[in-house]
Amino acid sequence: MTWFTFPGDNLLCRCLGISITAWLTLLFVFIIVPAVLGVSFGIRRLYMRTLLKIFEWATSRMEMGAKEKNQQLHKPYSNGIIAKESPSSLQQELQELRGSASCLRSEPEFEMADIFYFCRRGVESILDDEVTKRFSAQELESWNLLTRSNYNFRHISLRLTVLWGLGVLIRYGILLPLRVTLAITGISLLVVLTTFVGFLPNREENKPKNGGICVSNHTTPIDVIILANDGCYSMVGQVHGGLMGMMQRAMVKSSPHIWFERSEVKDRHLVAKRLSDHVADKTKQPILIFPEGTCINNTSVMMFKKGSFEIACTVYPVAIKYDPRFGDAFWNSSKFGLVNYLLRMMSSWAIVCSVWYLPPMNREEGEDAMQFANRVKAAIAVQGGLVDLIWDGGLKRAKVKDAFKEEQQKLYSKVLVGEQSDTTHLEDENQEEDENPEEDENTEDESNQDSTKGQ
Amino acid sequence: MGSRASTLLREEEIEEIKKETGFSHSQITRLYSRFTSLDKGENGTLSREDFQRIPELAINPLGDRIINAFFPEGEDQVNFRGFMRTLAHFRPIEDNEKSKNAAVSEPLNSRTNKLLFAFRLYDLDRDDKISRDELLQVLRMMVGVNISDEQLGSIADRTIQEADTNGDNSISFNEFIKASFVVRGNCMT
Fold first, then answer.
1. Which GO terms are recorded in the biological process aspect for this UniProt protein (chain B) (predicted)?
2. Which of A73, A134, A185, A367 could form a disulfide linkage to A66, CB 3.0–4.6 angstroms apart?
3. Which of A131, A425, A438 lies nearest to residue B145, judging by beta carbons?
4. A115 touches chain B (CB under 8 A)
């Protein structure tokens, strides 16, 4: 062991020892103990306010820089690239096109120019559609000094670059090690509170109770941690591998959770049965389900799978909205895995989210599972300020069903030949009364899993 | 993180596209962002599958034809220039527009060129005539299985009858323009 000792080695060891001790002490005193006891030092709010001021300053510098070059600063329009008129139905638009006052006539009426309508809708969707942009991180109005959210912000001034460099130092030199040590301590206790800096819950009296189901919109696995922070739940979700899988298996040892394989059709009925059993037992914790079935980027709420709404029990909706200015919480599972994602989370400025517990809802008379699901979805969307979409989150990975195209064709045929009994060999879909085809849901071959959490 | 920054699009290229299509600088960068977000393969070109991935386009009955319009003859990939060239047809016509580039006799988004775009959606074989078959094909795409062959055939016949002025049983571009002027309101601006 004598080979190890160099003259400066002893000193180095001692320095390291002292700094690590100091570090850990700070950690415990300022973060872990207050978190456990529920005391706050108010450091968080100060931190957040300072950060926001810096971001605004950075953006104004960039605007000045852009003006010098006589260009407009790239600003993501919150309502899309193109100026869309108010959406009207196929019938209305075609009527406008043709300029005819009368409605559908008995004689088939076709104009060569009818294709203009489809043409325009098609190109509009090429330029900007509602679905594909939900599966990638949201664009920000102002730059938050992270290169990963840097789309069009080039080097403008020295001061800005220096500030960015300082930010990198702080995030990787201080925040990241801080959070990593916390994570290691935390994971070993199965409590990962590392990325928490802001947390503002609301309406606490609506918290889910036993024998109920808690549903929420899904953005990231951290949703689970946030909700678990405030109450104990049983979880339902897709079986994963890797770090996630390890945590899943560990969690099962302490309380009942339901993990399943999304692609196993047999599993689906088994899961539904297990869910009903669990809910029927009033002593068991409420179940936490993310009916979207996949992570969405927190600008919208996508279709809720009806499986969890078929079970006869109270549903407690929860809306979760992340503040994107401090760090983007969306987990783009097709781009990076969990460990990579956690590293990005830990080197962001902060994760700030708002959680709203909404009043419990029950299925009403004459309402089927799908309508109930849509009602809950609308409530969550309104509270969280998200766009309420009818599209399926599964479109992240799968192609859209042909049935929707067939509905469009059906609508157009009605315009041509008027109301006729269709010589159709289409499946008998549950057509709702309105004209917007996207709202119709093919209730029959639902090949997607009903109630899933996870990717 | 990815190639979304417009630093990948050089200033000279932006200028060229501006001259050719008439889009403004910020519009071009914005559309480039969109182009790269559609380009899942990240190789600077879009394939037909990239377009098909847009759900709203996939359910459009004429979706395939519209996608085809972006691809030049016999090619399977479209780069950003080609993308912009096709999109330029859909730019609104401005009253004070003057064509700066003398080589282009008419701006891409002129009324005639817009109508030509629509005409080409019908005229697959590019013989400058819409035959009865071509008309039937498009009709079939638009109505799906909801109308019988006979009825569709009679619709096609009637349309050709009304539009055809020189009696060759097909619709030329000029006849198409005349037939479309029956339509009030300019849908393609």
1. protein transport
2. A73
3. A425
4. yes
CB within 8 Å: A97 and B185: yes
CATH number for B11-91 (one of 3.30.2000.10, 1.10.238.10, 3.40.190.10, 3.40.30.10): it is 1.10.238.10
* 3-class state of residue A93 by DSSP: helix
Each residue of B68-125: pLDDT tens digit?
Answer: 888 888 888 999 999 999 998 888 887 655 544 444 567 777 888 888 888 888 888 8
ipTM over 0.85: no
- The minimal CB distance from B121 to the residues A115, A128, A151 is found for A115
Structure tokens at B114: 């817009």
pTM over 0.95: no
B110-188 fold: Recoverin; domain 1 (1.10.238)
User: Hey, are the CB atoms on B184 and A99 less than 8 Å from each other?
Assistant: yes
Buried-state track A244-280, b at ≥16 Cβ within 10 A, e below 16: beebbeebeeeeebbbbebeeeebbeebbebbeebbe
Taking contacts as CB-CB distances below 8 angstroms, the residues of chain B near A336 are none
User: Alpha-carbon distance A15 to A10, whole Å?
Assistant: 9
